[in-house]
């Protein structure tokens, strides 16, 4: 197995066709096909299924691809360190629930390592996709929270995907509301006081279970529910409809706007916010820098 073969596999997976991958790699299609066949034979697995309609990743191939990406990233770090070059295009991806500190830390990372060429990704996405991204090593780090309600289910899922959870901080649940909301002047808000207002949450797609919710699950019934996909929509609805959402309380006026405030929520347990990573993975220099940046915003 060679690094070149791993680069070939990654390129074919990204383009979806042998033809386009060969063009981007500046090699012939037969040479690319033979290289992948040799790798599959050596590793005793089928990476790609071939049909008349084209190729697709096998289940084993999808797992293999995650490891291949990590090996290539570590090889790039070695070359950067020992060859003394600028390192070419840096690559890094993090998947996260909708946290302002995750965005701020990402900005700091790019300012430090952006250089002339880079390919960084910040995926604010659904909880199950965060777990899946890290499990398949599409993302090096995933950010989410555990609490007394979801911990047993999520830890079981993390274990089945060979992932580990590392706590960053413990947060008291807060309500995000408009600064003009009728409850904005209160020092603490109860679930009872929120009953008449629309509850806003991030929808979780096929895995729209309470266990995957980004917001604290409450035993109190919420009569008015609105689910959204993005941060901007949620905050616009908070203001326009006097709605609310439940979160960690870490707020950034530059990202969330001056019209959004956080007020402590009574009668709810703590949120243990942390990051997940693959047990067999290594935290890269970029990953270490990103986590250090996060901790700076939590001090």
Automatic annotation (TrEMBL):
<dbReference type="InterPro" id="IPR005119">
    <property type="entry name" value="LysR_subst-bd"/>
</dbReference>
<dbReference type="Pfam" id="PF03466">
    <property type="entry name" value="LysR_substrate"/>
</dbReference>
<dbReference type="Pfam" id="PF00126">
    <property type="entry name" value="HTH_1"/>
</dbReference>
<keyword id="KW-0805">Transcription regulation</keyword>
<comment type="similarity">
    <text>Belongs to the LysR transcriptional regulatory family.</text>
</comment>
<dbReference type="InterPro" id="IPR036390">
    <property type="entry name" value="WH_DNA-bd_sf"/>
</dbReference>
<keyword id="KW-0238">DNA-binding</keyword>
<feature type="domain" description="HTH lysR-type">
    <location>
        <begin position="1"/>
        <end position="58"/>
    </location>
</feature>
<dbReference type="InterPro" id="IPR036388">
    <property type="entry name" value="WH-like_DNA-bd_sf"/>
</dbReference>
<keyword id="KW-0804">Transcription</keyword>
<protein>
    <submittedName>
        <fullName>LysR family transcriptional regulator</fullName>
    </submittedName>
</protein>
<dbReference type="InterPro" id="IPR000847">
    <property type="entry name" value="LysR_HTH_N"/>
</dbReference>
């Amino acid at each position: 197995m060679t690094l070149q073969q791993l680069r070939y596999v990654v390129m074919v997976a990204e383009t979806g066709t042998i033809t386009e991958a060969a063009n981007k790699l500046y090699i012939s299609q037969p040479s690319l096909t033979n290289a992948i066949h040799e790798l599959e034979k050596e590793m005793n697995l089928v990476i790609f299924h071939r049909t008349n309609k084209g190729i697709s990743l096998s289940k084993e191939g999808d797992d293999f691809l995650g490891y291949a990406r990590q090996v290539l990233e570590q090889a790039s770090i070695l070359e950067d360190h020992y060859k003394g070059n600028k390192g070419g295009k840096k690559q890094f991806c993090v998947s996260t629930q909708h946290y302002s500190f995750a965005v701020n830390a990402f900005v700091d990372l790019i300012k430090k390592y952006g250089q002339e060429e880079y390919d960084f990704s910040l995926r604010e996405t659904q909880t199950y996709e965060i777990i899946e991204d890290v499990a398949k090593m599409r993302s090096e780090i995933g950010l989410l929270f555990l609490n007394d309600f979801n911990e047993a289910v999520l830890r079981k899922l993390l274990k089945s995907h060979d992932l580990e959870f590392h706590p960053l901080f413990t947060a008291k649940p807060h309500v995000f509301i408009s600064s003009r909301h009728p409850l904005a002047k209160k020092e603490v808000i109860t679930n009872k006081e929120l009953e008449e207002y629309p509850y806003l949450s991030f929808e979780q797609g096929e895995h729209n279970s309470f266990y995957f919710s980004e917001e604290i699950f409450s035993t109190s019934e919420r009569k008015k529910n609105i689910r959204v996909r993005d941060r901007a929509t949620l905050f616009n609805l908070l203001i326009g409809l006097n709605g609310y959402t439940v979160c960690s309380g870490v707020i950034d006026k530059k990202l969330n706007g001056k019209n959004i405030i956080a007020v402590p929520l009574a009668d709810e347990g703590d949120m243990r916010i942390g990051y997940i990573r693959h047990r067999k993975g290594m935290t890269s220099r970029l990953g270490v820098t990103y986590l250090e940046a996060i901790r700076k915003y939590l001090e």
